[in-house]
Specification:
CATH topology of the largest domain: Rossmann fold
Distance between the termini: 39 Å
Radius of gyration: 19 Å
Largest sheet: 11 strands, mixed
Order of helices and strands: HEHEHEHEHEEHEHEHHEHEEH
Structural class: alpha/beta
Strand order of the largest sheet: 3-2-1-4-11-10-5-6-9-7-8
Shape: globular
Number of domains: 2
Amino acid sequence: MNIAVRHSHYERLITRARELEPTSTAVAHPCDEPSLRGAIEAADEGLINPILVGPTDRIAAVAEKAKLDLTRFEIIDAPHSVAAAAKAVELVRQGNAFLLMKGSLHSDEVLSACMRKETGLRTGRRVSHIFIMDVPTYAEPLFITDAAVNIFPDLESKRDIVQNAIDLHVGLGLGHPRVAILSAVEAVTPKIPSTIEAAALCKMADRKQITGAEIDGPLAFDNAISPEAARIKGIVSRVAGRAQILVVPDLEAGNMLAKNLSFLAGADAAGIVLGARVPVILTSRADNLKSRLASCAVAGLYAHYLKQNQPVRA
């Protein structure tokens, strides 16, 4: 792919998100410069309307040191990160925010607040993380799931992980996706349990337990994304060689795959969590500006889709 069109996938998503009204977003504990600046820059781009939740004095001190203007933003005081996460979730439950964004606190603090039975944002769906990768050498956005939340998901959890990713792909207007269930090999073998789960997920799709996509697996990474590798292996499939969603066996595999693409292939990685009542934007201090904006754009586009379609959660 020509270097001039690197990361054009993100540009298209951000451009589309700018055309919508900024989404009200509860930002939990933005108490360092990357998280605070990320929220403000996304607001400057017209992607979100942030409500900053955390210790007011710390947020103000960070803003002053970084020369960031907070005068146009609502700030809600919360004494520490756990309280900030709880308050941000409360804002969503009250209908005052339609997105939740992680600040400078641990991901599990945000997700724990989301998953509380009485006060959280739980649905009947398992929550899962999706990386939306903009890989310069790949022709379209590449989704990788789950590389950040579910460590060793069982088959039932993987069903939700797959459906969350399909719903996002459709909700972003990217069409009916091609989903590859990854393993080390493309043959089903009892010696590699992930191949058996891949075959089971495909049969679940046949029985309409997973809907909205073409699904195939097990597929090794090469024959999932390379038409030539699929041809050499003799794999006849509508997914092989042109997958749009890659479902990994476990978090370790997904995390390594996403980071390999980022650091060796020059990919950018936007990420959100789905399965709660609203999308959750999980940014990292290592994220660059484009990735942060893309995460906000993806979450905003999907929140708008949910408002318009009000899908029934399985």
